[in-house]
Known about the structure:
- By secondary structure, the chain is mainly alpha-helical.
- The protein has 4 helices and 2 strands; from the N terminus they run ααααββ.
- Strands 1-2 form a two-stranded antiparallel sheet.
Amino acid sequence: MLMLGFAGFMGILKIVLMALAAFALVDAAVRREDAFRAADKNNKVFWLIILAIALVVSILFSILSILPIAGAVASIVYLVDVRPAVRQVTGGGKGFGRRGGSSSDGPYGPWNGGR
């Protein structure tokens, strides 16, 4: 009974790690290449390769081996360190559809009402 519960927990943990790696890979794929260089992080291709390897390793290997743990660490480093820096460079703000800035900003800068 205890082993069945442990196996279920490890299965859920494996799915979570696969989802984490997949989300990080998709997020890195949609970011602009120049934003990685501007944020002084490694280039986009580097992160795509690392995160793709992390996803494949999390799918193929048992969670108790070292490779899925290393892949999880790589995914966490991307999500905690690289992603916020790249988002800051590209102007990705909080909220849905907002790109940062004031609510009175127009397409060419702030709108001052003709003053």
